Amino acid sequence: MKKNKIIIIGAGFAGTSIASEIREKGVLGEVSAFLDDDPEKIGGNFEDIPIFGPISEIETIVQKIPAEEALIAIPSAGKEQLIRIYRTLERAGFKRIRILPGISQILDGDAHLIQAREIDAQDFLPREPIVIALKKSIQYLRGKRVLITGAGGSIGNELSRQLLSGGAERLYLFGHGENSIYEIERELRILQEEGVGEKATIVPVIGELQDQDYTSFILNRLKADVVFHCAAYKHVPMLEFNPVEAIKNNVFGTKNLVEAASASSTKKLVFISTDKAVDPCSIYGASKLIAEEVVLEEGVKSGKEYMVVRFGNVLGSRGSIVPLLRKQILKGGPVTITHPETSRFFMTIPEACSLVLKTGGVGEGGNSYILEMGKPYKIKNLAEQMINFYGFKPEKEIPITYIGLRPGEKLTERLYSKKETPADTEHPYIKKLIRKRGFNGCLDELLEVLCTVCFYKNGEDHHYRNRQYLRSILHSYIPTIKMKEDEPEY
């Protein structure tokens, strides 16, 4: 049987770890050579595998040593370096180009081939990832039972992967989507089999946070020490058409969770929030702003370490702009953008999750934190960069059309309001928000009124599922939520 010939770009610890694994397993292919830019390595070898270089001369090198696949094993590579390497490999005729994850994910241990994935447009997108020594950051979770709600989603998935390295006793993967929880559980078990992370016990849990009795039961039963609350409905225009369900799930689901955590052995809870909660104009943003306050108020009542972590868009998450643009480009366009000046804060999923885990360790209960997202980036520039990545010319081969802001969308986002002031913490990329109590201390009153819309009660059903009434309530407590003349009653 002919073995797949592989050239590994990078003869450092990551590249050599991968080469040793490929040789040991035998069936994964055969490493024919390394490529590196380090003059001290060029001309040498590792386990009899020659090291050539520099990388810029790969087109000449591969004529002597043929290979079908290239694997980029330089976890510390910046965007510009990565683009140069990718373009060089493309010109050399490689049809399959894979890449290892960023250094923050493998810095504290060996790299493994199972972590490699196909290179993608988002690897070249606008920001340089933040490097975090992951294992050190999550020492506080060693020996703990950790529950992740929304574990089947993009953020929950990545938190689960990174937590494999934390030495947790148990990882509870909680979600209401059977298939998504099945997929992440299966992936984590394969990663463990391949030597990634430590041997935490992985426990899939299917359930619904809107079910108050069940949530109370399961939190008491699982005895989780730490909870990362990622579960939420998140699609802004979709939730404008389903506002009651947005509030019921995002607000009352969160309320059920934090109250259940308070009554159980849980000591710490980290709530994942969004920049859309800042002066929200969308139902989604309003639901997350209210949920932030629910978490912080319950933390004060219970005396436990409950905190909020707020950040902007993550690249490549389900329902985000990157997968949509990719589909539009690959079908020949047009690429649709709301407005030429629309901009967003962006961060990769792995770095956002690393910072969330770090915040859980350095943060204090009762506080809100924001992640340093860098400068906002125009969606138009993002689209053009992706079109170029896939080998097309923006506007000439792939048209870009502007469709106008959709319901609930803003032109730009902010990470904190004028009533909040960011302050430094011990970590340069995590800021603490100095803030006043939300809703003028009337959170319980707001929740009571919202409850009449979200839940059916005999004799009190005249506001049940009434969208107009819901918007009027939100507008009275959150003035940035505007009334709509065309809002249907139901």
Could you explain the architecture of this structure?
With 490 residues, the protein is of the alpha/beta class. The chain folds into 2 domains: 5-119, 3-Layer(aba) Sandwich (Rossmann fold); 134-316 and 345-376 and 413-438, Rossmann fold. Helices cover 37% and strands 19% of the residues. It has helices at 13-25, 58-64, 79-91, 103-106, 134-137, 154-163, 178-193, 212-222, 236-241, 243-262, 283-302, 321-330, 349-362, 379-389, 443-454, 467-477; strands spanning 5-9, 30-35, 45-46, 49-52, 69-72, 96-99, 117-118, 145-149, 170-175, 201-206, 226-229, 268-274, 305-311, 313-315, 335-337, 343-344, 346-348, 368-371, 377-378, 400-402, 421-424, 430-434. It has a 9-stranded mixed beta sheet with strand order 10-9-8-11-12-13-18-22-21, with helices on both faces. The protein has a 7-stranded mixed beta sheet with strand order 3-4-2-1-5-6-7, sandwiched between helices. A two-stranded parallel sheet has the order 14-17. Strand 3 (45-46) and strand 4 form a beta hairpin. Helix 6 (154-163) packs across helix 13 and helix 12 crosses helix 14. The chain is globular, with a radius of gyration of 24 Å.
